[in-house]
Design goal:
Blueprint: H1 4-18, E1 22-26, H2 34-47, E2 53-57, H3 61-69, H4 74-77, H5 79-83, H6 95-110, E3 113-115, E4 121-123, H7 124-138, H8 142-159, H9 165-177, H10 179-188, H11 198-202, H12 209-225, H13 230-233, H14 240-249, H15 253-262, H16 277-280, H17 290-293, H18 297-303, H19 308-320, H20 325-333, H21 342-358, H22 363-371, H23 375-383, H24 390-400, H25 410-422, H26 431-448, H27 454-461, E5 466-468, E6 473-475
Parallel strand pairs: 1-2
Antiparallel strand pairs: 3-4, 5-6
Helix pairs in contact: 2-3, 6-7, 6-8, 7-9, 9-10, 9-15, 10-12, 19-21, 21-22, 25-26
């Protein structure tokens, strides 16, 4: 049996007979895992002694050594120095070339002028000039630029009519370069109220954007840069200004500058800014194509801004295709109190009733509608100006109970009556007022449909006069 050295001699003699230089080019070495990189190095080591044979590899030396160092000792982490006789360091590509490439791709895609949702035209090139510092600090190679743009411009094209270009671009930079921090921003910038310092709530700081940003930066430092930073948080001698300085000293300066450019008092003057809590979630929607986009919060928000008849047509398509889950998720998240004015409130109530009836009183729209009949919630709508005249509002929501389309909302009326019977003082109408509507609905249907069908029974069950027992048995 021939030994390995003998086999190598045979190969070497064959190469000598060719009488040509053989160049073996290995690219993208830095895309491999540590074990795979070392295996390639060993193959090179085992074959580099062949006559007339040259190995040419291209890789990011610092990145390769870092990958190996994460798994092996420091001695092994310098593998690349042991296998190559000559190293040629390529100069970094000029930042202006990368910036010009990004500008060219984006202007080719969107044109130099973009019209946003408020029909205000802005100059894309001027917007990019404002972003130049962040582009040059976070996108180092043309490969990075191409990868970033492949994700960014496809997604922004779908949301360009509603989201702010500059802010979406900056958030996309964080997503591309620092994905874990991107996820932290998504979950921590506007956390659930139950996780907020009670002192912050008492001092009305929870809604202050600068307070929220400072809190986010502190969380990012603890989670991603300096886990023992919490020790400073327990220092009784700390000051607010001192802690803020400590936070900024312990966070990556590129991330810090992007976050300050994203969340500031100037930006939130634009109602579509990411710093406005009702828009924040829309910036994190994932959509790769038009079909995906039609199941995002951004799309639903734009849908509900259309004419009411057009909205109902599209809602019918979702219901026909049995594809209402994301629609209902949007309704569940959307806060009624963040609607623009009285007209948008009344239109939204019409649509809630429409969906509720079409979906047989689904839990999501039922919950939203019940709030509209509660004293405390209506008082909140009055405080923020969505309800100008309480009598007009009560007349409107009362009318919806016996004049909704495509049918009486009898299932919702049944739930409303049950809630009023259990907690009558919480609601703007009495049991007698709602019961009268339920009975009238039944009588009207009976007058128009004298032959019995299941709707007679359903309408009758909505005429609740009382509930008894632990199970809430209905008394008609």
């Amino acid at each position: 049996m021939l030994g390995i050295e003998h086999e190598k001699d045979i190969i070497n003699q064959s190469i000598q007979r060719i009488d040509k230089i053989i160049v073996v080019i290995i690219d993208d070495l830095d895309r491999l895992l540590a074990d795979e990189i070392i295996e390639v190095f060993k193959i090179i080591d085992g074959t580099a002694s062949f006559s007339n044979t040259v190995f040419l590899t291209a890789f990011d030396k610092e990145h390769v050594n870092k990958i190996i160092d994460e798994k092996y000792t420091n001695e092994d982490s310098l593998f690349s120095d042991k296998f190559f006789n000559v190293e040629i360091f390529l100069p970094a590509i000029p930042k202006t070339i990368i910036y010009n490439f990004i500008e060219e791709v984006l202007t080719d895609t969107f044109g130099n002028k973009i019209i946003n949702s408020d029909e205000i035209q802005f100059d894309l090139r001027k917007e990019l000039i404002d972003l130049k510092f962040h582009i040059e600090n976070n996108i180092k190679t043309l490969r990075d630029a191409k990868r970033f743009l492949n994700s960014f411009h496809n997604q922004f094209y779908l949301v360009k009519d509603i989201l702010v270009f500059k802010e979406y671009f900056l958030l996309s930079l964080i997503k591309y370069r620092y994905y874990n921090i991107y996820l932290t921003i998504q979950t921590e910038m506007f956390p659930s109220i139950q996780f907020v310092d009670i002192n912050a709530l008492h001092n009305r700081q929870f809604d202050d954007l600068n307070f929220r940003l400072d809190s986010l930066l502190r969380t990012i430092v603890v989670k991603h840069f300096k886990s023992d930073f919490l020790d400073y948080g327990h220092d009784v001698n700390k000051s607010i200004g001192g802690e803020k300085q400590k936070v900024e000293e312990n966070i990556d300066k590129s991330i810090l500058s992007i976050l300050k450019a994203l969340f500031n008092d100037f930006n939130i003057q634009n109602p579509n800014s990411i710093g406005n809590r009702d828009m924040f979630d829309f910036y994190f929607d994932e959509n790769d194509n038009v079909d995906d986009y039609k199941n995002t919060a951004v799309y639903f928000k734009m849908l509900f801004d259309k004419e009411e008849k057009d909205i109902k047509k599209e809602i019918n398509l979702y219901i026909t295709d049995n594809d209402v889950i994301r629609l209902l998720e949007f309704i569940k998240k959307r806060k009624i109190e963040l609607l623009k004015n009285k007209n948008s409130l009344f239109k939204y109530i019409n649509l809630l009733f429409y969906i509720n009836v079409k979906l047989d009183n689904d839990a999501t729209t039922c919950e939203k509608l019940l709030y509209l009949y509660r004293n405390d919630f209506v008082e909140k709508l009055k405080t923020i100006g969505l309800v100008e005249n309480l009598d007009v509002f009560k007349l409107f929501v009362k009318e919806k109970l016996h004049n909704s389309t495509p049918f009486y909302p009898y299932l919702f009326i049944k739930d409303l009556l049950a809630n009023i019977i259990d907690h009558g003082n919480l609601y703007i109408f009495s049991k007698e007022e709602i019961l009268e509507i339920a009975i009238n609905n039944f009588n009207q249907y009976l007058d128009k449909n004298s032959i019995y069908n299941v709707k007679h029974y359903d309408l009758l069950l909505s005429c609740i006069t009382d509930l008894i027992g632990d199970r809430g048995q209905i008394i008609l």
